């Protein structure tokens, strides 16, 4: 190692540094540590070499890992379509945001809105219309073809009770059940004969204290 | 001894390495000239873009769903095609497209973050800090790719074999037909040259 003044870092120091870098490759070497201790410029230069080496290692190792084909034969998203993508690029088509998921979502929303509007303006005679709560669902009758002697529904069993009221097209009460512990409510022959051509049946669920928990109704024709 | 991948760089009679990945350059030229077989081969080679994007997306906690990632792959392929005129054969095609893929995903993540629709899976991670790390890594990849392209080819080869393939100097020397000490010298001189090339770019804002 040179015995010259080490207070000024210059070309001579860089030459020595390069020689040590190539021959030792490590700051643990006594000759390297001695040089770095005596010259701040050399220490800084050595640190940059080590930082470059670390950067190269990080980038190349990450690249190698990420470019590797998965061993399970799985294809990455888009991997099967690269040639088509390349053809698009060659036609100078800029990539466009995929629109069909958005169009599909918009169509679903429009259909849902349409159904909602339709129900609001012209209530279907064959679909239940829950009004309150989510724990009550009408099962039958819901369609013209359903038998009309039994009214069945589904409800969460919470220790309460139910009541069914049948009204005609003008909303006048035609039939009222007794206090029901569970579904179904079976009509007598007399009650069945009193069913008007167009009617609505309404189920109300009460909790054990008599408070309304849920309501549902369906309108249909005989 | 480890079996190393071919360098794809033709060697001369003396064992000296040719200055370029001529076959990759020829492949691109043929594709640009309308050769359909070349285009198919190029597309096959560019599948690596999808794999890189998938790997990085997973590493980030899959912020992009598969159909969104396909759009990003398309973007990266388009950017690659638009940049191919700058390919000089200083590296393999796969190494050359890697920074493009990394940058494209980083940009997509930035756009998503700007819309406020992305948060890291780990709530302890600062999203802006993670985004900055992605940008910084993309910058490192770009700087290194450019610098390796300017490096003396045999030094660049040794550095790639050393780090990408985790090869020892004995293995590299055997692969290149030179003594291990020569491979070691090429490596350390290559790192020193990269330090200067990358440092100069950093000092001039990447325009060097």
What does this structure look like?
The complex is a heterodimer of chains A (222) and B (208). Helices cover 39% and strands 20% of the residues of chain A. Chain A contains six helices and seven strands. Chain A has helices at residues 11-23, 30-38, 40-67, 82-90, 100-121, 189-194; strands at 136-140, 150-155, 161-168, 173-176, 185-186, 198-206, 212-221. Chain B has 208 residues and is an all-alpha fold. Chain B starts with 21 loop residues before the first helix and ends in a 5-residue tail after the last helix. Chain B folds into two domains: 19-149, Orthogonal Bundle (Rna Polymerase Sigma Factor, Chain: A); 152-208, Arc Repressor Mutant, subunit A. Chains A and B meet through helix 1, helix 3 and helix 4 of A and helix 2, helix 3, helix 4, helix 5 and helix 6 of B.
Task: Describe this structure in a few short sentences.
The complex is a heterodimer of chains A (222) and B (208). Chain A has 222 residues and is α+β, with helices and mostly antiparallel strands.
Helix content of chain A: 25-40%
Helical fraction of chain B: 55-70%
**The number of domains of chain B:** 2
Rg of chain B (C-alpha, Å): 19 Å
**Individual helix count of chain A:** 6
Nearest-integer average pLDDT of chain A: 79
Number of helices of chain B: 9
Which strand-content bin applies to the residues of chain B? under 5%
Summarize the topology.
The complex is a heterodimer of chains A (222) and B (208).
Chain A: H1 11-23, H2 30-38, H3 40-67, H4 82-90, H5 100-121, E1 136-140, E2 150-155, E3 161-168, E4 173-176, E5 185-186, H6 189-194, E6 198-206, E7 212-221
Antiparallel strand pairs in A: 1-2, 2-5, 3-4, 3-6, 6-7
Helix pairs in contact in A: 2-3
Chain B: H1 22-32, H2 36-45, H3 47-59, H4 66-83, H5 93-114, H6 127-150, H7 153-164, H8 169-176, H9 180-203
Helix pairs in contact in B: 1-2, 3-4, 3-5, 4-5, 5-6, 6-9, 7-9, 8-9
């Amino acid at each position: 190692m040179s015995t010259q003044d080490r207070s000024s870092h210059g070309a001579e120091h860089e030459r020595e540094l390069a020689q040590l870098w190539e021959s030792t490759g490590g700051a643990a070497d006594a000759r390297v540590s001695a040089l770095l201790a005596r010259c701040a410029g050399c220490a800084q230069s050595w640190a940059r070499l080590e930082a470059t080496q670390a950067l190269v290692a990080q980038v190349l190792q990450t690249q190698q890992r990420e470019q590797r084909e998965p061993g399970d034969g799985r294809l990455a998203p888009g991997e099967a379509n690269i040639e088509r993508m390349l053809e698009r690029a060659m036609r100078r088509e800029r990539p466009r945001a995929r629109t069909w998921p958005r169009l599909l979502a918009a169509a679903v929303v429009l259909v849902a809105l349409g159904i909602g509007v339709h129900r609001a303006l012209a209530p279907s005679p064959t679909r239940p219309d829950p009004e309150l709560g989510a724990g009550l669902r009408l099962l039958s009758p819901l369609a013209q073809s359903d038998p009309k002697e039994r009214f069945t529904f589904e409800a969460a069993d919470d220790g309460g009770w139910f009541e069914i009221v049948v009204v005609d097209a003008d909303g006048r009460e035609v039939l009222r059940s007794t206090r029901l512990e569970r579904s179904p409510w079976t009509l007598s022959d007399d009650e069945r004969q009193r069913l008007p051509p167009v009617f609505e049946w309404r189920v109300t669920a009460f909790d054990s204290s008599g408070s309304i928990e849920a309501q549902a109704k369906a309108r249909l024709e005989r | 001894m480890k079996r190393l991948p071919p360098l794809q760089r033709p060697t001369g009679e003396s064992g000296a390495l040719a200055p370029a990945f001529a076959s990759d350059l020829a492949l691109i030229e043929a594709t640009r000239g309308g050769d359909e077989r070349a285009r198919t081969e190029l597309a096959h080679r560019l599948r690596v873009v999808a794999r890189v994007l998938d790997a990085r997306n997973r590493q980030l906690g899959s912020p992009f769903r598969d159909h969104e990632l396909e759009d990003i792959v398309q973007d990266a392929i388009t950017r690659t095609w638009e940049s191919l005129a700058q390919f000089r054969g200083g590296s393999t095609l796969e190494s050359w497209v890697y920074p493009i893929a990394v940058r494209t995903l980083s940009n997509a993540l930035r756009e998503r973050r700007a819309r406020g629709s992305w948060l890291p899976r780990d709530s302890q991670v600062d999203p802006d800090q993670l985004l900055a790390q992605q940008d910084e890594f993309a910058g490192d990849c770009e700087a290194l790719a450019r610098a390796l392209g300017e490096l003396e080819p045999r030094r660049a080869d040794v550095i790639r074999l050393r780090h990408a393939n985790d090869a020892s100097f004995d293995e590299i020397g055997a692969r290149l037909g030179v003594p291990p000490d020569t491979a070691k010298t090429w490596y350390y001189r290559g790192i020193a040259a990269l330090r200067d090339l990358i440092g100069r770019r950093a000092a001039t804002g990447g325009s060097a």
